[in-house]
Amino acid sequence: MSFGSVVGSGIFVITGQETRYDAGPAIILSYAVSGFSALLSVLCYTEFAVEIPVAGGSFSYLRVELGDFVAFIAAGNILLEAIVGAAGLARSWSSYFASMINTDTDFLRIRVSYFADGFNLLDPIAAVVLLIADGIAMSGTRRTSILNWISSVLSFMVILFIIVIGFIRGKTSNLVPFFPYGARGVFRAAAVVYWSYTGFDMVATMAEETKNPTRDIPLGLVGSMSMITVVYCLMALVLSMMQKYNEVDANAAYSVVFEKIGMTWAKYLVSICALKGMTRAC
Fold first, then answer.
1. Which of 2, 154, 159, 238 could staple 224 via S-S, CB 3.0–4.6 A?
2. Which domains does the chain have, with CATH numbers?
3. Transmembrane segments in this chain: where (predicted)?
4. Does residue 271 have a pLDDT over 60?
């Protein structure tokens, strides 16, 4: 469950942006640093989940330990994280969709001239995607759970495909220079790609329904987070091997890179997987 909750949309959304503008091929180190930081958070969640095996997650933990006010602040932050994250995913959804139909990633967006650059592209497709995702979520818990399970299996298969093809078709010469933006760029990217690791708290909320939370929760959280970190580092590595960091598409990196290496059919496969994952996570 932890693997399915974390892996999916994040790796497709921000890896290209951070590879091109912040870290270069050293994005693999950014994911390693973020993975270690996420593992520290996982250890904290594990401790709380074992001591306070309830379904409320971090809200319940803080309410018990620090009181209602701190829990209220935490709940507000969690809600803000969900809203901002969903908006970012929906915007990336339109970028991957535009890439899949062979148009510019901003083709489906509306440019507003009197807004500042960087904030002047309205995305109606993203709004529609959010409404559809909300409709799916409200259709029922059982149906949503089945769709999430199928989505997780398909995502894992496509991610495995990307890693294998990346090592076969990639070139180690594309990894030079490895630190084009220096150590500062690596840590700047690490702060952003940490978002790809969010979702592990879903397992902690299952402690109340687990027969042996003292054993199962630590094993599930720590084991899955370690595996996820390895998968993310491998995906970041193969992206940099398949294309020079300064040529990576910031909006739809994994679909565009397959087109660049002559595997256009794989571009559509990756785009569909990314779109599916982002729809599930919205």
1. 2
2. 2-281 (1.20.1740.10)
3. 28-49, 69-90, 119-140, 146-168, 175-197, 217-239
4. yes
